[in-house]
Amino acid sequence: MISYQNNNKAPMRINDIVPVQAKDNHVVFYLEIRRSMISSESLGLYILFPLLVLIGLAFMILTLYFHFNITKPIQVLNKRLKNVNIRGLTSFLSITRKDEIGELYNHFNEMEERLHLAQKEQIDMIAAIAHDLKTPLTSINGFVELLVMQKDLSENERQEYYELILKKSKHIGELINDFSAFTKNELELETMDMKAVEAARLFENIATEYEAELSGLGYELFWKHSFKPSQFMMMNEHMIGRVFGNLFSNAVRYGNQGNLTIYLSGFVQGSSVYFQVEDNGQGVPEKDMSSLFLKFFTVDKSRQTQNGGTGLGLASCKSIIERHGGEISAFHSPYGGLGIRFSVPLQHD
């Protein structure tokens, strides 16, 4: 009989069968058993190495991801910021991403566009001021030269030239006053105070004031509103009063209508309070609608010379309304003339 001796629980391997002794006609063999076990240190290395490889690959992937999706786009934006040139817009930074980086690019493009528009407005403003001042000054110089050179002018001719010089001088004074008022208005907008104003009260005060004023000029004002007593706006009442003043003044100045009628209305829509000033005048051509709120823009230069004005009234209205967080726009009124609509945010409890 062959007997095996195995007192270990670990895996075994039979290396050899060794006869040990003979006893009672029985040969006893012992199997030489050796443990085949991997040491704990080797097992740890086998597990740790693949794990380190995986960690290394993950780190490389994350590094590439951050480089191409975060670091590189920011580097491009930073380089563009260093080279911003307000004198000429080359091209917008293009990106199709919808995440925070994409929003950052879009905000930068908007900022750069505003800078260029501001630069263009400054140049246009200087050109417009120079043009508006040059025209009457040229006339004044011409009349003065006539008075100096032509000694044989009659007293009536001299008086006529003096009156024309006086008229052109007053026009220059009006232009300077308009430029000064516009600049003052822009500065006041930066520090103006706002308070809660009841929409119905403001509307009725404006309507009553201009109804009497227009009636004195031979014009009519029809007004209506749908405001409730509990509806308030946060505003600077003095500044909003300027807006109404400019709108009524423009309607009278450029309406060119003998039986001019102006329509004032007010209502609440969504989260805004809306005011509309319309007239039955000659209106504005469609091609000029989008330019009405630009500084120094006038539909007809001949009308400007005849009726006065510098093209700053509606531009000033736009600045005031946008400073209040509202919007202003022009439209063709169903009454036949021009309509101006502006909004102010409704105050919520």
Blueprint of the fold:
Blueprint: E1 12-23, E2 26-35, H1 40-82, H2 100-149, H3 155-191, E3 195-198, H4 199-216, E4 220-225, E5 232-235, H5 237-254, E6 261-269, E7 272-279, H6 301-307, H7 313-323, E8 328-332, E9 338-347
Parallel strand pairs: 4-6
Antiparallel strand pairs: 1-2, 3-5, 5-9, 6-7, 7-9, 8-9
Helix pairs in contact: 2-3, 3-7, 5-7
Counted beta strands: 9
What's the CATH H-level homologous superfamily of the largest domain?
Histidine kinase-like ATPase, C-terminal domain
**What structural category characterises the helix and strand content?**
alpha+beta
Any idea of the CATH class of the largest domain?
A: Alpha Beta
Which value, in Å, is the CA radius of gyration? 43 Å
Q: What ranges have pLDDT less than 50 throughout 5 or more consecutive residues? A: 1-18, 33-37
Biggest sheet layout: 7 strands, mixed
Q: Total helix count? A: 7
Share of residues in helices: 40-55%
The residue-averaged pLDDT reads 80
CATH fold assignment of the largest domain:
Heat Shock Protein 90
User: Kindly, what is the distance between the CA atoms of the first and last residues, rounded to a whole number of angstroms?
Assistant: 103 Å
Beta-strand proportion: 15-25%
Shape estimate: elongated
EC number: 2.7.13.3
Enzyme class: transferase
Transmembrane segments: 43-68
GO molecular function, one term: ATP binding
Overview of this protein structure:
This protein is an alpha+beta fold. The chain has 2 domains: 100-188, Helix Hairpins (Orthogonal Bundle); 192-347, Heat Shock Protein 90 (2-Layer Sandwich). 53% of the residues lie in helices and 19% in strands. The protein has helices at residues 40-82, 100-149, 155-191, 199-216, 237-254, 301-307, 313-323, and strands at residues 12-23, 26-35, 195-198, 220-225, 232-235, 261-269, 272-279, 328-332, 338-347. The strands form 2 sheets. Strands 3, 4, 5, 6, 7, 8 and 9 form a 7-stranded mixed beta sheet that branches. It has a two-stranded antiparallel ribbon with strand order 1-2. α2 (100-149) packs antiparallel against α3, α3 packs parallel to α7 and α5 packs antiparallel against α7. The radius of gyration is 43 Å and the shape is elongated. It is a multi-pass membrane protein. This is histidine kinase. Its EC number is 2.7.13.3. One of its GO terms (cellular component) is plasma membrane. Residues 68-120 form the HAMP domain.
